[in-house]
Amino acid sequence: MFQCFARNLAGEIQTNTYLAVTSIAPNITAGPADSAVIDGMSVILHCETSGAPRPAITWQKGERVLASGSVQLPRFTLLESGSLLVSPAHLYDAGTYTCMASNSRGIDEAAADLVVWARTRITKPPADQSVIKGTKAVMSCGVTHDPSVSVRYVWEKSGSVVDVSTSPRLRLDPDGTLHLSQTWSGDIGTYTCRVTSVGGNDSRSAHLRVRQLPHAPEIPGAALSQVEKRAINLTWAQAFDGNSPLIRYILEVSENNAPWTVLLANIEPESTGVTVGGLIPARSYQFRLCAVNDVGRGQFSKETDRLSLPEEPPSAPPQTVIASGRTNQSIMIQWQPPPESHQNGPLQGYIIRYCLSGLPVDCQMKNITRPDQTNLLLEELIIWTNYEIEVAAYNRAGRGTYSHKVTEWTLQGVPTVSPGNVQAEPFNSTTVRLTWTAPSPQFINGINQGYKLLAWEAGHEEDVTMVTVRPNFQDSVHVGYVTGLKKFTEYYTSVLCFTTPGDGPRSPPQRLRTHEDTPGAVGHLSFTEILDTSLKVSWKDPNEKNGVLTGYRISWEEFNRTNTRVTHYLPNLTQEYRVTGLTALTTYTIQVAGMTSKGQGQLSSSTISSGVPPEMPGPPTNIAISNIGPRSVALQFKPGYDGKTSISRWQVEAQIGIIGENEEWVMVHQLPNEPDARSLEVLDLNPYTSYRFRMRQVNIVGTSPPSQPSRKIQTLQAPPDISPYNVTLRTASESSLWLRWVPLPEWEYNGDQELVGYRVQYSRAPSKGGVLSHVISDRLEKEFTIEDLEEWTEYEVRVQAINGMGSGPWSQPVHGRTRESVPSCGPSNVSALATTSSSILVRWGDVPQTDHNGLILGYKVVYKEKGSDSVPQYLEVEGNTSHSVQLSGLGKYVLYEIQVLAFTRIGDGRSSKPSILERTLDDVPGPPVGILFPEVRTGSVRLIWQPPAQPNGIILAYQITHRRNSSNSNAATVDVLSPSERQYTASGLKPEAVYVFRLTAQTRKGWGEAAEALVVTTEKRARPQPASRPTVPQEDVQARSVMLSWEPGSDGLSPVRYYTVQYRELPDGNWTVHSASVNHEASSYIVDSLKPFTSYRFRVKATNDIGDSEYSQESEATTTLQDAPDKAPTILSVTPHTTTSVLVRWEPPAEEQINGVLLGFRVHYRELQYDRLRSFTVRTINSPASNWAELTAPYSVRNLSESSLTQYELDNLSKHKRYEIRLSVYNAVGEGPTSTPQEVFVGEAVPAAPPQTVTIQSSTATQLDVTWDPPPLDAQNGDIQGYKIYFWEFQLQNETERLRTMFLPELGVKIKNLTGYTTYMISVAAFNAAGDGPRSPPTRGRTQQAAPSRPSFIHFSELTTTSVNMSWGEPRQANGIIEGYRLVYEPCTPVDGVSKIVTVDVKGSTPLWMKIKDLADGVTYNFRIRAKTLTYGPEVEANITTGPGEGAPGPPGEPFISRYGTALTLHWTSGDPGRAPITRYVIEARPSDEGLWDILIKDIPKEVTSYTLNLDMLREGVTYDFRVIGVNDYGYGSPSAPSPSISAQKVSPFYEEWWFLVVIALVGLIFILLLVFVLIIRGQSKKYTKNADSVSSYPHLGSHSTSLPLSHGEMVRLDEGRFPALELNNRRLSVKNSFCRKNGIYTRSPPRPSPGSLHYSDEDVSTKYNDLIPAENSSLTEKPSEISDSQGSDSEYEVDQNRGGQQKTHSFVNHYISDPTYYNSWRRQQKGVSRPPAYGYAQPELLHTPPWPSRTPSSPPPSRDTLHPCPHYPPCCPGTSPHPPSPRASRGSIAKSSRVCHPRGCCSEGRVNSTGALGRMEEGPIVNMTVLAAPHHSWNGRESPVL
């Protein structure tokens, strides 16, 4: 546009016009210039153009287009001006860049070279260091830079440049490392390494601290204290701490020029003075101090002047003053000098002061001038006198205090004179009386202890009888008696007085003789030459003559007839005498006695029968027991036959504990010389023990047989007599002890075993606090764990047995110590003091003694930042005397929570409470974080930030510096902001320029590290492009970390602020952020905290001011290396295995904690010595090397290379030692940590093998005898204390297992009270003091059979007026093989004057049911049933009353019958329904000739009042009555009245009539003559048509065999199902009654016979048939099948069991009751057989059915819906081959089929249905059975009942 301006004074005017240049060739007016840029920074290559139309700019590098209007590669941005922005620039971006401008007129281009220098960075910055003075400090400054760029290193110290050329101690390496040797305090400061180059500048700082030993305290001074006696005040000036905080001062003392010793080792570092008290007078002291910091102990200060304390008199008396009487005139006094610390100066001697005790006399003194003399004998004292004695020491300052008075007597003397006026005289035949006077007390010389009266026979002076008499101080004359002397014997007597030292002189001996007395019994009384009228008596002199024998007295008398006594006196030389004039065969009592002047002596008596020599006595009888006590009983008895002489001794024998016929009898009591005894007391019995007694009597011939045993008694209870023995105590855990003992044997219970138990009493040893106890109620318990004890504490324990009567004695006490544990409390007085910005000094006190719980080995300081979720850090301090530590490397100006804990060998204790809070000192801050540029314009930007992550103090200000990011721009803009500012706007910037912003924070320590950020002043910004796929070089893969590397993507003209790194654990882990603040300049990153031996993938994303990039592609899968395992195995148990080995069981750590491939386990073990532990003290700071290793031997290690192990036997250990065991795992890298230690005592182990050769012998039905051999000797592991016998019923171990414990090493046991005929499994285990060994393999044994228990129940159902279904349950304890049941039933009251008792034996264990019929209506019956094995068991009984119950329906209306063809229809009306609606009807039927009612049809719907049945259900030609019964929920109701009788005779069809046959015959004659002949034959046989209808189609049966198809009536069961029927009919039925047919008509039965008595006998049982066993009171009679109609009789028939091949006999019970398959079979319908209709006009067709299938006893009874046709049976008549029947009945069945041969020659089968009369019945015999009637009743002409 062109403008033209014209102006003058009047104004101005303008005009313009446009000039449009539409086509100008492009021209690069300012092309790119060669540039250089630093790697990672941005560069702009300018390209200004002109042209029309406006040229399109394209930038190329070689042939590659980098940016144009349509193409833009990452990191290359085409600016609006046409310039190219490369951000960031990388090394590979170096090259020639071409700017091409093009339009329609042409192309112009310009090129320039870009050089990219690698950024110069400090990659190994210097680190803060603390070095000890004189050592070397190395400050590294590792740099990475472009090879073409030279780098210059400059080190500054506190802002000043360090010139290494000025000192030989300084050296600067080419790589920038600064070495400072021989460091000293002048080297302390902050060192900054600055690196300058054209590739960028960088700087890093670190602080150097030079530590040294603290200086010696200054100006130490010492002065006597004016306030405190025996104290010295010390002062000093504070020492220089050596640039490390002082920990404490150590004060040493030299006493009397002795070597220096530590007096105080922990003086607070802030102190400048201390008072030393408790010093000893008269001693000189000199002191010196030193300071201690973490470098060590500094030099000692100068010694103080030596000070001496003034001398003082001894402040303590002599020690241990002991006085003892040496003689009766001297006392020895002994002492020890006063403690040296209380002598207060050199001792000069001792003073002994003594005087008579209690008397007001002056004391005497003894002065000892030798200080080394410590005893003195005081002599010339008074005999037997009490003295008081004191001792004092003295020095130059004076005499000290006297000791406590000791009193001592001079020794007693013996009396010097004998008693006076001694008189002796005989008192009686065994006693002498003496009198005397006491000697004067002055001659006794001691305490008169009494007098000794002496008597001895002449010539036997050594055998003195002595009687001691206590002194009598009241009487002047003393009297004493010497008793127990021999009668009529000469003695010497004397008296003496005695004191404690001995006897005084005896009085002169006096001679005397004891009085004469009657003699003792003559010796050896015997009888010889025994004749009818005389015998010879012999004897010997009495053993005790007791005088001068004057003769003998002999007398005899008839036994118990004193009036016949004859007495003779014989001279003293006669010792035999013939007694004459006796009566023959008469018992005499003969007595002989010696005679002295004092009279007749003791009689010797015996009885004898004249003419009969003495015999063996008989046993006593009528033993009775009374006065039963815990340990005694009284027995009364009647003597037995005396053997014609007197009884000299009674003997009592007993069975103890186990009473039985075969048990042992033991002698328990004897009573001699009591021939007339009728009772005696048996003593020394065991309390609460079962006894049974028997007696024997003894005469001169021998001992009688035993009497009959008495009744069984049990003595009363008493407390236990003994304590448990073998009591041992072992450590169980930190708070428990394991107490073991051997329980009392059963015979020591002394009471009810259910009340026997044990009481454990325990207390701390020595006694501290109360005594606790615990009661254990299990009598068999042999161990107890005492819980809730104090850790590491010794206890005293004892145990006693208790029962219901009281407690027994205590056992001897045993001692044990609980195991060491961790401290239960933290140290006290914990404090913390910040010393620098990164260190804190922590101090603490001791753990309370009661909370040590073991030996404290050291302490751990636990610290973490307050409020942080990070894991606390630990610093361990070894030794239990160090109580401070310096925490270093802490965060600056960070508040820490600090706790201290103590640890023992077991582990860490509780931390101290509460936590101590302490903040480190402040320092310069770290860089601000989170710098973003949310707003960027072409001329201004706004940035925001967050405070530094490490503020290191209180932020006081922020400083922002920004400048253009170019190598030639040094001008920067600086602004300082307030600490609350969080954003800043910089304006006046050039567009499309790159600027660098530096942000730093300030604390009071100065400005901190700066944070830098780049920004491009352009509005064309975007999210960054994703970085390249991360790579992980294998050399950078470690066990827990890897290094990722990636190439950044384009930053979208907004520099990347940070990167986010994620990782994912393979195969199924989720992505997890590892760090979201990776430096924006980084292209690599170390990902740490990974799991060893685990596969990972990684990805990276970048974030700039605009947002996040997409995540990079996932890296390749990387697997970290293996590392040592992190966790130890968990030890499950350590148990003694043998006496020198233990079995260790463990659970390995989880697979992810092994950190590699598990190679095996290591067992660490060592012996513990608790005695050393108790006395051990961790040494002071002077001996820091002391540690736990000094306490015990080092660990021994066993390598287990099998990784699948979970247990190991650690052998070759020492017996009776305690071991500590730890366990660890190892992999290819190394070994993991060891487990928590487990302690075990080696030396006791359970038996390693079970008892051998366990055998079982069945003794009785309730007892098994078990024997075994002990385990092998090498597997016993100690003394076997007993055995445990486990026994249980076979396959019921969990439910029935019981235990019998034998506490003595017996090798057999009788297990009693078992269940009969039961298989038991028995296993035996041995046990010793360590516990139970393994069980032996179970051995099987079975008890013998016994009577079964009662059947479990009786159940009744289907109760009608005349029948009931009865079932019962099996016995709960069969106790053997059930052979059958016996059922007995009878009416509770006589029926019609007759009481019938029916007994039925059911053979076999099944069936368990029966149907009973022929009961009387309204009568209550008693049913009893019992089972049988070898014998019958107890009964179970129940009563049932026949007839309808209360609430049952009433009778329906009388039924009437309509007949049509072959069907009958019954009609009735409903009756009273009772208390519940009628649910169904039942039809009963019976033959009109007084047959039994039985159910014909059941389950007729309740709505029906008529029912039609087919005549095929009934037996043709028989007349029947019918009645109806209603049923409701209360049961069967009353039956209706019987219907009119109706015959079951069928009406012949029309084609059987004669006129039809005539017509047929006439028609046949018309057609053919031959046909006429045939029809005539047919007409003659029409009367046989009915036979033809029922002919069986089975060809092998022949024309005479009949097998009728079963009709509906036979398909209906006559009972409820599953019940066999037992009928009691009131008449006999012969074979021809219902089964034989004459002339086509079924005949009635003949006249009934008179009733006969019943006799039941077991002889009628046929074992060939598995059927009923008749009872003892029943007999079964049956008619043999061979008898013809005319030959039938009621005679009894004997069953021949040996008739092989002949027809099996058939009894009624066999046929009718035994087999439920028979009468159930008519309800069983086989496949292919249709069920005939209940009624209809069509006659059923013949059925062709196969034989019956076999049926086992366990099969259920057939249902009523099943048809069971008759089986095939072969002909039994002559000319036919025999064919045995199918074996279908097994044990337990109640019925059998039988076959009958009829006289007509036909062969038929016989089978009786449940009624015996109803329906079409197969031919066969009927068994007659009579029922026993009470003998006092008559049958009144009624027929005999038939079973």
UniProtKB/TrEMBL annotation:
Bias type Pro residues, positions: 1746-1759
Residue intervals passing through the bilayer: 1554-1577
Q: Which SMART domains match?
A: FN3, IG, IGc2
Pfam families linked: fn3, I-set, Ig_3
Name where it's found: Cell membrane; Synapse
What positions does the domain Ig-like occupy?
Answer: 26-115, 120-211
Q: In which residue ranges is the amino acid composition biased (Polar residues)?
A: 1672-1690, 1699-1708
Fibronectin type-III domain mapped to chain residues: 216-312, 317-413, 418-517, 521-615, 619-718, 723-821, 826-923, 927-1021, 1026-1123, 1128-1245, 1250-1346, 1350-1445, 1448-1546
InterPro entries, from UniProt? FN3_dom (IPR003961), FN3_sf (IPR036116), Ig-like_dom (IPR007110), Ig-like_dom_sf (IPR036179), Ig-like_fold (IPR013783), Ig_I-set (IPR013098), Ig_sub (IPR003599), Ig_sub2 (IPR003598)
Region Disordered: what ranges?
Answer: 808-828, 1640-1659, 1671-1708, 1729-1763, 1777-1798
Q: What keywords is this UniProt entry annotated with?
A: Cell adhesion, Cell membrane, Disulfide bond, Glycoprotein, Immunoglobulin domain, Membrane, Repeat, Signal, Synapse, Transmembrane, Transmembrane helix
Could you mention a single GO BP entry for this protein? synapse assembly
Q: How does it sit in the membrane?
A: Single-pass type I membrane protein
Q: Where the protein is mainly located, per its record?
A: membrane
Entry GO CC? plasma membrane; synapse
The organism's superkingdom is given as Eukaryota
What family does this belong to?
Belongs to the sidekick family.
Record's protein name = Protein sidekick-2
User: Origin organism of this chain?
Assistant: Coregonus suidteri
**Species classification:** Eukaryota, Metazoa, Chordata, Craniata, Vertebrata
